[in-house]
# Entry
Amino acid sequence: MSPPPAQLLDSDEFRRQGHQVIDFIAEYYSRIADYPVHPDVVPGFLSRRLPQNAPSRPESDPLSAALNDVRDLILPGITHWQSPRHFAHFPASSSTAGALGEALAAGINVVPFTWAASPAATELEVVVVDWLGKALQLPKSLLFEGGGGGTLLGTSCEAILCVLVAARDRKLAEIGEGRIGDLVVYCSDQTHFAFRKAARIAGIRKDNCRVIPARREDMYALPPAGLEDAMQADVEAGLVPVFLCTSVGTTPTTAVDSIRELCAVASPRGVWVHVDAAYAGSALICPEFRHLVEGMEDVDSLSMNPHKWLLANNDCCALWLKQPSALVAALGTDDDVILKDAAAMDDGAPVVDYKDWQISLTRRFRALKLWLVLRCYGTDGLRDAVRAHVRVAAAFEDMVCADARFEVVAPRLFALVCFRLRPPSIATSPLEANNLNERLLAAVNATREGPYMSCAVVGGAYVLRCAVGSTLTEERHVREAWKVVQDHATLILAPIQVKYGGRDGQIFGSWGTSVETTPPCTPSWSPTTTGPTPRPPPPYAPSCSPTTTCASSPSRSLAEKLDALNHVAARLGSRVVLYLGSRAMRALVEPDDDANLLYILPVAELAPRQPRPGASPPDLAPTENFSAAHAHAAVAPSMPHWESWSATPTPSSTSATATPSST
# Structure
């Protein structure tokens, strides 16, 4: 039977089950490093394991059963955002105070859409947003005590839409509502897509959204000259500039727009200037970052997310405005007598009804959580947390810079490092270089106990993003992450092509650098190919030790180089794939036209070895786009030990049929 209503919120049962949940969460955090950051699942994996219908009656001890399912079904299938190895996205920071603040607000469960609906909730929010604004050293004109004001919303996406609607209505009040089709908004090509989405929702014509290119020489900031040209052209065309979205900490690279210069262009034209500081706004709590936002006193609004980097847990976005009345004029509702409070109106004291500052009516008691975080850690504690992440990111940046195979693509301003593998040679096309880095990211993220990173395309270049910000991340985690990146880079770059001609041959090292080598000893073998005289297989027997030099490992023998690759692969639980003169090598080195042999070096040993009786060759089909990284992923740890096989391309395609060759 279902419990009687009195037991649905029984204090004793709440205490018992609450302990269960808290213990479960605590255990999760103690073991979070054991989970792969990103799950290896396919769409529909969970629905196939859960019943098609909700239970009509609860089972015995339903909470315990549900928590078991969370442990066995849910946790293995989520991305663990609080993992110390999560570097893919800007953080969704957590803390004990933040999590318990969420629980406290959920337990009290008020709906403070007006002052009357919950006076203390509204007034705590007024206090907390001014506390936070002062901690971030925002201009007094954006705070309640300076004539402005703020609120707590769910996300910056919501905040941008709210202020855009306010700017739209303010401008239409001047020029007439019939001219909504003439309104133009502005951003850079680095601005978060949420702005363009908000513009569509607000009724701005799609072709009236000006996206101004940012350049590497400007550190990917929105160029004031480009904005000036765009606005002037629109005015001359009879259009009406209405809104500029600037960024402090763009998503791709954390670029910071020049607020003062952009305001000098936009403000004289009556354009609303908003600052989207969703991620990097938290860093303003540290004095050393405040010089990045000079000119903030000229903006109309600013939003940032304490849930990203100030330990406030999801969700919590702070929005400040210089003229809250413009927001209330656009979003306010005054015609519902149920929501009006006669006592407040009779008293004549001004009150804040936060329903008029947002799109929805219902709202959460977010102020309680943020207040608890500020009370428990203080502004000094929050500064320490931000600075710790910045130091760890700086350490990771140093590691990248110390490896000449890599480059840092954009200046690190906060705790995000954007890096990439350099093109292996000057002959590498931009597309090939991007494909190389795309393969690297895929290999890194496929490492079960490795880091989880993300990518961006900046100035046409595919870059890897390492965003440090998880509360649990320490320097040791980024050092481990960097080792995984280096190991996979070695596997991707180091496949060797050996060309034999006469007495001399060439080895192409991991940088695409060709060096001379003496002819190696040759194991006995029987070629299965026809046509031009085939070359011998690679000298991977331990007795073969031709000397060679290469950019990354000077004065090392080929056997030593292969042994080093073998150890890298062993650490990653994979096999080294050597593509020797095959068509598949075309993306890395230029093979001879008549070369068509592929070789695999087993992890377990360097010496040649016969395949197991009855074993079939690996199911690999080299193509023009087939890469070493793809082959690395395709070679499963359980595959037979095939040292070599021939691949004969068919006339109609670049696929190959593999045939074993004897050794």
Notes: Residues 366-402 form the longest helix (37 residues). The chain has four domains: 6-35+39-51+58-78, 110-334+350-364, 379-491, 496-660. The domain at 6-35+39-51+58-78 is CATH 1.20.1340 (dopa decarboxylase, N-terminal domain).
